[in-house]
Design goal:
5 helices, two-stranded parallel sheet, globular, mainly alpha
Length: 118
Amino acid sequence: MTAGLGHYAVETGDARAGSTLLRTAAGQLGSEAPDCAGAWMSSLLAVAYAATEVDREESNSEAHQAGSLRMLDEAGELLAVWDGLPARGYGGTADVVATAHARGLPVTVLWPEGAERP
């Protein structure tokens, strides 16, 4: 529940509150949590962190892309949970994966059940 509230806070423009809630939720993940839960939490934290670091007042497509670019600036590789579909808006997962490839970063894609590889 805490992670959902943190995600909601980030999406509605309060990245700082969202970051706090997400850090709390990350600390509550036990060792029995599936790997995908940790990956999801890490991605939410990265977006929240990047949104606060790029000084965006609201959570929108431009802020998401700016945050993703900031994340890629610091990354040595990208781990993406992606359905293989085109981005549904600027700054979507497809955009981030394409940018990581263009920068020469190693990319590992975790494919959700039922997703098709492009």
